[in-house]
Amino acid sequence: xxxxxxxxxxxxxxxxxxxxxxxxxxxxxxxxxxxxxxxxxxxxxxxxxxxxxxxxxxxxxxxxxxxxxxxxxxxxxxxxxxxxxxxxxxxxxxxxxxxxxxxxxxxxxxx
Length: 111
Description:
- The protein starts with a helix and ends with a helix.
- By secondary structure, the protein is an all-alpha fold.
- The protein has 4 helices and no strands.
């Protein structure tokens, strides 16, 4: 008796979860259809100027921490060279890993 009650409750919960997922996805679909925003244009006079080393470095740091602005991201994709971003990204990752290993070593020696 309790087993049947448990099964019926689980079935009702699963059905409610399915309905809420369908409702949320329909709402998101409506929002995406109504969202006609266009990406911001780069109106600066130096629009065709190549990205500097510090600009690439700043973009890699911002991307690593997830705080890159839409305008800056579009500038990177339109003006920057992918090789530069990949190279700086790999170097940043290597330095980050080495710093983490060093901090762990220091922490372990302190114990």
